[in-house]
Amino acid sequence: MRKFLIPLLLASVAASPALAAPRDRNNDDDTRTERQQSREDRQQTREDRQQSREDRQQIREDRQQVHVERAPTQPRADRSIGSRDIEASRAARREAVETQRAARVQVREDRVQARLDQRVLRQAERRDARVPVVSNTPRPGTQPPAPTTVRHSAPVHWNTDWRSNSRYNWYNWRLRHRSLFSLGAYYDPFGWGYQPYSIGWRMWPNYYRSSYWLNDPWQYRLPYSPPGTRWIRYYDDAILVDMWSGQVVDVIYDFFW
After folding, report:
1. What letter does residue 226 receive in the DSSP assignment?
2. Is the pLDDT of residue 25 over 70?
3. Domain coordinates of the chain in residue numbers?
4. Which stretch of 81-85, 124-128, 169-173, 175-179 has the lowest confidence by average pLDDT?
């Protein structure tokens, strides 16, 4: 029995290396193949990274080229102006624009005032051609006779140059405060209807009694009346009256609405 087992064991031991050798060779071939594939993959990865870096570098160069092409051609000194200088320049431009705008507004206001003065002058010239009749009894189209009493106040000295003073620009003031110049219906004490008065004419006392006074002329941007005079309302006109003689010292036609 031993004779048979010993040769059998020896035969199996001799066959084991022969069987293992092909499997080892196969394993070595697979390992080499995997290593080769891994090296190729790494090489491809490196090439991809290099290509990506080159692409990014090219993009940056293209952007720099575009920026250079779009950059203004002004000198470098102009581009280096400080923020304070820029703000000062802007403020100067704004001030210049505001000055020009104010000048244009003033020119328009002067033109409007000049046209208004010319219209008032033409109206006064037309009305001066009609001299009212002096009468001792009130009747339409007449004026009372000059007073015979002694004057206890100084004569009135009045200058109509106040119309050219922008402080008394009642026309523009009226445009912004229309309700102030809307005083409602006018009550004529004699019922004669509107009879326009000119400077130098005398009014009947009933027309300048206290119920017709403009107690605050500045409210309408009118100059304050000198002593012995009063601003009154006569229909839509504003009239400055000498309270002693009833004489019209100044008049603004179509003053109220």
Report:
1. P
2. no
3. 199-257
4. 124-128
Question: What is the bridge-based pairing of β-strands 142-143 and 133-134?
Answer: parallel
Contact (CB, 8 A) for 193 and 211: no
Angle at 29 between CA 27 and CA 35, to 5 degrees: 100
Residue 15, amino acid: A
Q: Round to whole Å and give the CA distance between 47 and 51.
A: 6
- The answer as to CATH 3.10.450.160 being correct for domain 199-257 is yes
Burial environment of residue 68 by CB neighbours within 10 A (0 to 12, 13 to 18, 19 or more): exposed
Q: Is the pTM of this model over 0.90?
A: no
Tokens describing residue 163: 């119309």
Task: Return the minimum-mean-pLDDT range out of 80-84, 89-93, 170-174, 236-240.
Answer: 80-84
Rounded CA-CA distance 34/190 in Å is 128
- Distance between CA atoms of residues 127 and 253, nearest Å: 11
Q: E-strand spans in the chain?
A: 133-134, 142-143, 229-234, 237-242, 248-252
- Neighbour-count burial of 226, counting CB atoms closer than 10 A to its CB (0-12 exposed, 13-18 middle, 19+ buried): middle
